[in-house]
Design a protein that fits this description.
Layout (H helix, E strand, L loop, with lengths): L10 H11 L10 H7 L7 E6 L6 E8 L8 H11 L2 E2 L11 H9 L4 E8 L4 E9 L4 H13 L7 H18 L3 H15 L5 H9 L3 H11 L5 E7 L7 H6 L7
Parallel strand pairs: 1-6
Antiparallel strand pairs: 2-5, 2-6, 3-4, 4-5
Helix pairs in contact: 3-6, 3-9, 4-5
Length: 253
C-alpha cells in the first residue's frame, strides 16, 4: 500500500493521520513480487462468446499477451496503442483521424466505436482492441482490426510514430490535471516502479521510440502469437478463433 497526497498538505501531517487511521492493516510481510514468483501469470489463447440476439449491437475484444509495468517494452506498447487509437461515430475527426485503423473504420462505416487498450499488470499485460458494431459489419471490422494491428510488424512510418508519441504525451499530461489525479499517479508509480518517474524522463523514453522499435516490439508481442477473444451480442457474423489466429502474421509482404 502507498499513501500519497498532493496539494496544500504537509508531509508530517499526512504521516500523523496515517498513524491514527491505518491501525488495523495486516502485518504480513509478503510482497507482490513474492506472490508473482510463487504463482506467475500464464497467457492462454482462448475465447468466450455469449450470443444474445436481443442486443442491438455486437461487442468484442481481441487481446494479445502484453508487457508488465516494468518491462522495457511497455513504453513502445503505449505508443502502439496510440497508433491504433480510439474512434467513435461522434468523434469530430471522423474519417480524418490520424490512426489508419480509425480511417479505415470511418471511411467504410463498419463500427459504432473502437478503442485500443494496453493494460499493464505486475508481471504481464494485455494489448488489443475493443469494438462495438452492427451485426452485419463484424466480418469487415474484424479484418480491419487484424490487418492494421499485424501491420505494425511489417510497415510502420516514422511520421505515424511521431504523431502517436505526441498524442501519448498530451494524454499523459491531461490525465493528471488536478491534485487527486496527481496523488493517484504518485501512488501508482511507487507501487509499480518503486519510485516517482519525472515527466522529463518519461517523455524522453517516449521520444526514444521510433519505427524500428515499433516493428521489433510488434514482432515480439503480435507476430504469430496466441490471442484471447471475448464477444457478446448478435455475434454470429464474427469470424472464428482460427480466422483471427491466422491473421497474426502475413504470408507475403
Amino acid at each position: 500500500m502507498v499513501i500519497a497526497a498532493s496539494g496544500a498538505v504537509k508531509h508530517e501531517d499526512v504521516v500523523e493521520e496515517v498513524k491514527k487511521l491505518f491501525t488495523k492493516l495486516s502485518a504480513d510481510p509478503t510482497t507482490a513480487t513474492q506472490l508473482v514468483a510463487k504463482e506467475p501469470a500464464f497467457f492462454t489463447g482462448s475465447e468466450v462468446r455469449i450470443i444474445d440476439d436481443d442486443m442491438p449491437l455486437a461487442q468484442f475484444a481481441v487481446a494479445f499477451n502484453g508487457a508488465s509495468w516494468t518491462d522495457p517494452d511497455s513504453i513502445a506498447l503505449m505508443v502502439m496503442q496510440a497508433m491504433l487509437g480510439p474512434w467513435t461515430k461522434s468523434a469530430s475527426g471522423g474519417k480524418h483521424m490520424g490512426s489508419e485503423l480509425a480511417q479505415r473504420i470511418g471511411i467504410n462505416e463498419i463500427a459504432e466505436t473502437m478503442i485500443s487498450f494496453n493494460t499493464n499488470y505486475k508481471d504481464t499485460g494485455l494489448f488489443g482492441v475493443y469494438a462495438v458494431a452492427k451485426p452485419d459489419c463484424l466480418d469487415d471490422l474484424a479484418y480491419a482490426i487484424m490487418y492494421e494491428t499485424t501491420k505494425l510488424c511489417y510497415r510502420v512510418s516514422e511520421a505515424n510514430v511521431i504523431r502517436a508519441c505526441n498524442e501519448l504525451k498530451s494524454s499523459l499530461m491531461l490525465r493528471i490535471d488536478g491534485t487527486s489525479p496527481v496523488a493517484e499517479d504518485i501512488g501508482l508509480q511507487l507501487l509499480t516502479y518503486s519510485r516517482r518517474i519525472p515527466f522529463a524522463e518519461l517523455f524522453a523514453r517516449i521520444d526514444a521510440v521510433d519505427a524500428s522499435t515499433i516493428k521489433r516490439v510488434a514482432n515480439k508481442f503480435i507476430f504469430d502469437k496466441d490471442i484471447a477473444i471475448a464477444a457478446m451480442g448478435p455475434i454470429q457474423g464474427l469470424p472464428d478463433y482460427n480466422w483471427f489466429r491466422r491473421r497474426t502474421y502475413w504470408n507475403r509482404y
